[in-house]
Design a protein that fits this description.
107 residues; alpha/beta; 5-stranded mixed beta sheet; 4 helices; globular
């Protein structure tokens, strides 16, 4: 089973912007309850879309530079990157169906 992989300020450019596949980044923090509710859905989608899209989680408390650079103002925030460019961004808890729709638009 594939799950979302941790990414940091230091690895963001190579892992996310340098990816040959579209990438979904989940910005989260320990204190964020909607983030905790979203986590199992993200891991499930990471398995479902393995080989077609990469899934990363970025702890916004431990890594403050990238959320600042990417304009993340609230948690959870999900961003999709394709070819190193930000192509979609949503804030707040989302249903699995809403996330699938967003992912499918960028595959």
């Amino acid at each position: 089973m594939s799950a979302a992989v941790a990414v940091t300020d230091a690895t963001f450019a190579s892992e996310v912007l340098g990816s040959d596949l579209p990438v979904l980044v989940d910005y989260w923090a320990d204190w964020c309850n909607p983030c905790k509710q979203l986590a199992p859905i993200i891991d499930e989608l990471a398995t479902q879309y393995a080989g077609r899209m990469k899934f990363f989680k970025l702890d916004a408390d431990a890594n403050s530079q990238i959320p600042l650079q990417q304009g993340v103002m609230a948690l959870p925030t999900l961003q999709i990157f394709s070819g190193g460019q930000l192509v979609a961004s949503v804030q707040g808890g989302k249903t699995k169906g809403a996330l699938i729709k967003m992912i499918e638009e960028h595959l």
